[in-house]
Amino acid sequence: MVEPLQPLCRFGPKMSDFHIWLLLVWVLLWTLMLLTASHEVKPAKRPNFIIILADDIGWGDLDANQPERKSNNTPNLNLMAAQGLKMTDFHSPASTCSPSRAAILTGRYGLRNGVTHNFAVESVAGLPLSEVTFPQLLQKEGYYTAMIGKWHLGHNGPYRPTKRGEVRPF
């Protein structure tokens, strides 16, 4: 006759193998909690990024996209591309300037954000003030934002770029 296997240790007369495993798991979890609580968790470094929107530029117009070409027309862009993440597949959300800029800033097509045509200099309208822009969301997260160059989303009154975001000193 074969004797039944005996447990390696007994903690009490009514402690089953399940209870022993449960106790070991509990001790392990508490140990892990104490170990992780004692180490300071550093916040992840937020990335810096730049979005460049250039009208009528082709893929081959930038040296960074053609490393064999040594024209050095865009040395700063070449350096940014070499040091950072270069995205090489982008599709414009519209075929004209104002709707494509509005779509990039809001994440919504022109039919949804209200910008379906280019704004003339004498236009009294612009990107609707009710639209929340990507830079506004970034500012709420502590980012500094800037717009350099062509705005083309409203030239007068509250539609000017200087009226569309918070101005904070560095």
Kindly state the number of beta strands.
Answer: 0
Mean pLDDT: 78
Largest sheet: none
Give the CA-based shape.
elongated
Number of helices: 5
Strand coverage percent: under 5%
Radius of gyration computed on alpha carbons: 30 Å
The helix/strand order is: HHHHH
Cα separation of the termini:
84 Å
Task: Tell me the structural class.
Answer: mainly alpha
Pick out the low-confidence regions: none
Helix content: 25-40%
Cofactor: Ca(2+)
GO molecular function: arylsulfatase activity; metal ion binding
Family: Belongs to the sulfatase family.
Keywords: Calcium, Hydrolase, Membrane, Metal-binding, Signal, Transmembrane, Transmembrane helix
Structure explained in plain terms:
The chain has 170 residues and is mainly alpha-helical. The chain has a domain of 73 residues. The protein contains 5 helices and no strands. The protein is elongated and about 100 Å long. It starts with 16 loop residues before the first helix and ends in a 30-residue tail after the last helix.
Task: Give the secondary structure arrangement, pairings included.
Elements: H1 17-38, H2 75-83, H3 97-106, H4 110-113, H5 134-140
Defining key terms:
elongated, 5 helices, mainly alpha, 0% strand, single chain, 170 residues
Short description:
By secondary structure, the chain is mainly alpha-helical. The chain has helices at about 15-40, 75-85, 95-105, 110-115, 135-140.
